[in-house]
Amino acid sequence: MKNRLIVALDTDDDEKIGWLSSRLRDTVGWFKMGFQAFSALGMEAFPRFEQNGHKVFVDLKFHDIPNTVARDVGMMTKHGAHMINMHASGGFEMMQAARKSAEDATAENGIPMPMLLGVTVLTSIDETGFQRSFGSERGLTKQVVYLAQLAQEAGLSGVVASPLEIEPIRKACGDDFVIVTPGIRPKWSKSGDQRRITTPAAAIQRSADYIVVGRPIIEAADPVEATEMILEEMKGA
Fold first, then answer.
1. Which residue numbers in the chain have pLDDT < 70?
2. In total, how many domains does the chain have?
3. Are the C-beta atoms of residues 79 and 43 closer than 8 Å to each other?
4. Which of the following is catalytic: 61, 100, 187, 235?
5. What is the pLDDT of residue 195?
6. How does pLDDT run across 170-221, given as a tens digit for each residue?
7. CA pair distance 78, 56, nearest whole angstrom
8. Domain of 102: which CATH number?
9. Are 19 and 218 in contact (CB under 8 A)?
10. Buried b (16+ CB within 10 A) or exposed e, 166-198
11. Is 32 annotated in the active site?
12. What share of the chain is helix, strand, coil (3-state, %, to 5)?
């Protein structure tokens, strides 16, 4: 299960990131690097995490014109990202350009192709907030599935989606489509600003490929113990 748990480094504390990477060397296989961590580490993050045997999920949620996103995704691929996300709402052409750029970078540098993921609807948004903010004719779940299908058509590996939408995405996109789920909160932790959430065990039961957990681990008094408790919940599924 350690290779299905992604620890979100929601901090810009360089020393703490290094400590977490060292302490969790044998416990987890992935770290997620968002803007906070990336602003502290930059491209030096890749060799540092690789040294401790961790794969890197670059969570910068690219969303721009196709040429710009293609350039950024290609650069992250070249430097060694194993997973990269972008907003699926950026459109088919943007996602397609990003995929082509990643393919070119892997061919030119002889490196593995990263998983490319489309971000659907953020887990901090519930149905009421979705309608108020977007005024879509589709409901939230239908919009998530629509964006997942668009990402699949554009050639992306999968999507980032709340655990509550795993099953309809699976039905629409199949078993080989990668689903990464944030909004994961163990029974013993607070939900914080997340709305569409579930437990680690429930996400695995619903067939999530990877789950993302941040604050319950990195803010714990003992991150190793917290991680092991989450892994036990996952195994129990």
1. 189-196
2. 1
3. yes
4. 61
5. 62
6. 999 999 999 999 989 887 766 555 566 789 999 999 999 999 999 999 999 9
7. 13
8. 3.20.20.70
9. no
10. beebbeebeeebbbbbbbbbbeebeeeebbbbb
11. no
12. 50, 15, 30
- CA separation for the pair 148, 158 (Å, rounded): 7
Q: Which regions of 79-223 does DSSP assign to beta strands (E)? A: 83-87, 115-119, 158-160, 178-181, 210-213
Q: Which residues pair with 184 in a beta bridge?
A: 198
Please enumerate in sequence order all residues whose Cβ is within 8 A of that of 128, keeping only pairs 6 or more positions apart, or say none.
none
Supply the pLDDT for residue 194. 58
Query: What 8-state DSSP symbol labels residue 113?
Result: P
- The pair phi, psi for residue 141, each rounded to 5°, is -65, -40
* 159 close to 169: Cβ distance less than 8 angstroms: yes
By residue range, what is the domain housing residue 20? Answer: 2-236
pLDDT of residue 123: 83
Written as one string, the DSSP assignment of 208-234 is -SEEEE-HHHHTSSSHHHHHHHHHHHH
